[in-house]
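so the lab meeting is tmrw and i was supposed to have these ready like two days ago... anyway. pasting both below. for each one the top line is the aa sequence and the line under it is the structure tokens. i havent really looked at them closely yet so no promises
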Amino acid sequence: MAADKHPFIQQNDLRHLLLYGGNESAGANNFMGWVLMPKNNATFEGDKNDEAAYAAHLQYDTMVSLHEYAHDQLNITSVYGAVLMATAYLCKERKDLRTVAEEVLGELVDRCYYSHEMYATWNSLYTLFADEGAGFITTHILSDNPEYLEYFEKADAIVASIPTLQLKGWVLLSFINFCFQSKGIALHAEENITSNWIGAIDEKDFPDKRRELLEQHFPPEKLKALLDHFLATTLQNEFVVNGAVNYSGVHEYDIEEAVLIFTKLNEFLQKEFALVFSSYGLESFIADSHLAYNQRLVSGIYEIYRPDSGTKYTYFVPDKNDHVRLLMLQFESEDVLFTRLPVFSKVVLPEDIGDQLWNGLYTSAAGLAYFIVWVRPLHILEEQYPGLSEADRQLLRGMGDVITFTRKVEDTEEGRHVSIIPFASPSALDTRLHELPEETQTLAVAAFSAYGFEQWSDTWGDYLNAQLSGYLHLNDISIVYLAEQFLADKQDVRYDHFLVLHHNTFFGFICIRYTEGENAAPLFISPCSDAYYAYLTYYFSERFPTYREERGMATPLLPFLTPVALGMVEEERFFSFKNAVLGGEGHS
């Protein structure tokens, strides 16, 4: 299968997840992040009358999101994942330890890669195509992809005797997760983190070998017998009817109840699995008994080995009491990539702009001319454009912690060239605004995180709101935190999803609006994947049921929203929810 048709990110998914460098931002919620590059819709070469094949093609982005989410889920729920994250941190943030850390990370990934891909492939495809089933997945999704077909079929074989899809998923997660729960690896990593300690580990303690041993000791029928025993004894009143196990009962539970059942099942199964490794003299963590170790290892790594970049990282501990919230926070590890091309950038002062460049600064959409003023905290702007020269960085730093600017982009065969034009004061911008053609619509797009910097807010906030035709917030903080800390006491919160098309590629955006007094407050918008929006809708319905999805809310605003969305897609590298929270601090 060609690279642009591959249902998952076309490279080593796990290394990419751990070392993705597009956003090493202040306050990342863990050491990982993954990136989604939305699919170019012009690449479909099949028969569009084959509805199943074309539907699968259109669902490419969701497949990528779910696949990378499954990798993330496996890492944050295992001790081996914590070791991977800590080692990846040293690779990215400690120049003096990078060589040995890269060696160790490569060895760690090689010894867990097959099991990681098995779980991520099976979980993501069944999440998306549960109704269609295995036949559809193997025939329409993976028929031209023998590598991922093998991962899927290998995982499916482990739970072949388990009767329902929900139970299959629980048993497979417990089975694969246990492969990543070696105490020996945990202790060696903690004690020898700055050396290559891989040679001291019994090969049977690495995930791929642990999985092979479990497959030998627990064939499908034995796993089913264990499950039946659990259902008939541990949850007898709920799953046994007239002396027989009632498998269909599992579908009647909501997520919180299902988590409670899975927690008991996971502990039951993993105690059985651990007996196999005890016979080899190898100890294992059971269920979530590793969480204290994870916190100690990952937080300790940061405390002892401070990052060269000064970036603060904190370990994202799963919230055992709110799995709906955890799901959303995990999906906010996904960054949306706008271009695969290199991005070249420079700073141009307004007084150095010639008439030709100035006249090209306003864009047209829906028959109207727009001039867009952007606002971003400086550290986010520097991450967005890492190619800025040191002289340009120093120039921007002299303007404060938040930069108000416009920009010009040119795409060439070698990459994207972005000119950043900053305004040192409202009067500097005001001068330029008066030079625009009279019919030009002026828009301000202010990063919501900028309001954590009082000096900028006091200087610019009222001016932009009063002097420009339109005003909106780019929500660059976690929407979970936005909902909990900012929107929770607002009236009439509504949200919608809209798409913009750029070079045959659809990019999705969420927009949120609330009422303040008798007036609608400024819109919040954020780029997001289809999978993120689907889970956000679920999160809002569960945690903030008064928020309502109002499909079509964005439609009359598209003449205003489209140039803003296209401006981001055309002029930036990526978008991340992990940049900051209010106050300029990263979230943990």
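ok protien two:
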Amino acid sequence: MKGRSMQPFELPDFYVPYPARLNPHLEGTRTHSKAWARDMGMLDETRDPGTPDIWDEAELDAHDYPLLCAYTHPDCDGPELDLVTDWYVWVFYFDDHFLEVFKKPQDHTGARAYLDRLPLFMSLEPPEATNAVERGLADLWARTVPSKSDAWRERFAISTDNLLRESLWELRNISDGRVPNPVEYIEMRRKVGGAPWSADLVEHAAGVEIPERVVHTRPLRVLKDTFSDAVHLRNDIFSYQRETEREGEINNCVLVMERFLDVAPQAAADTVNDLLTSRLRQFENTALTELPQLFEDATLDPSERAAVAAYVKGLQDWQSGGHSWHESSSRYMNAKKPIGMSARLPALLKSVRLSIPHVPHQKVGPTPLPDFDVPYLPRVNPHRERAGRNCVAWAAEMGMFSPHPRLPSRSGPPRNCGAAPWRSARRPSPPTRPPTPSTSPRSGSPSAPTATTTSPPSTTATATWPARSCSTRASPASSPSTSARRPRRRTPSSGAWPTCGAAPPPPWTIADGASSAPPSSTWWRAGSGS
């Protein structure tokens, strides 16, 4: 802990996209926060009877929570910095107090009763406090919520309660000796960890509120989730040694990766850092590419857009400032020898590799389909013809065949209407290639139609069997590998068209909006390639 050789792993090369800045009111806040902690009974010299030793003045100074808040909120004024710092002093004291009083003795009953009582102090008329945590929460709530809306108060109350409930989840894991898997761990930390609470407090420190109608939109949720993941993952890297060696903690992502992947702590820490970097990249991508569209879709006015922008800037400041504080606080392992550019180059190249965005809609394949074994025969509903006629009539009544606003001409019945590839009555379209006629049509069924190259204009047009309806794999000439496959079964329902899944329909016509029975949906799916 005191020397570099004592650390279980070398700290990885972190990706920090924004420079950390320091609030000029730091020294005044240091004086205020120490006096406030003493007044609330958080220091050992003023603790409540029966409370074990948690902090003395020297330890509080070494943790330097005012420095954390001066880094994470560099632009707020002095009184606001005092308030935010008191919140963080309170939350870290709660964490250490819960560890000594409930985690170490594994007192589940006492912990549950203790946590159930704390929400009572998130009101303007709290009950009488019995310990420093309750006393501090009542004081902070009264100083914080009067300036905010009811919607923000509700969100902040939920985040604070989730923050407190996280300790109960951690206590259960410790008692069961159960290290969660990475997916469960990240999901639970995002849900009940302290970072969502910090994100809500950023709004207060910046003096803004996110418009309620966009709070739960995808871009804002992604920003909050990626912010939370990055804060938690960074904290787990820096606090690994303290939590595993001194506190007996097992809820740490480095330890989770170490156990899950069965790797050494160094490899686990590097993996967590890669995940941390990816979450920061996602945050940046969302802020730059999705927020502008959200502003337009939600029709935010200039002041609302400025509020969201200030909130995003506050989250960015928190990331950079929180990292700088972790590198200097005595609460964490942060010994790291100076390294030159030659040692940093691999990490920088790795960061560049991770920054390459994913390119969607890349061409893939072709992937040959396997020879599926379908043990059941396909059947056709006897009401198919009636459904097809009603489908066309309903679509016409709804205006689906009318000209589209972005298309200058009338669009004919869609290919999938009535589960058939329709052809316009006035402009019949020949197939792209003549179909392969059936050599053994079923009894009572018309022979497979042949291709028609020309058709004079008329009020009634006969549609031909489209060449796309059968897969190219149906023709041995088009697919040399077909002969090597086992023969396809010929069933009464499939007849001479085994690759299409159904027999070819009879020729059908369109005359003045009416039609005969369209082919089955099975045939359409095979023919359209969907």
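from a quick look at the 2nd one: The CA atoms of residues 13 and 337 lie 12 Å apart. The radius of gyration is 34 Å. will dig more after coffe
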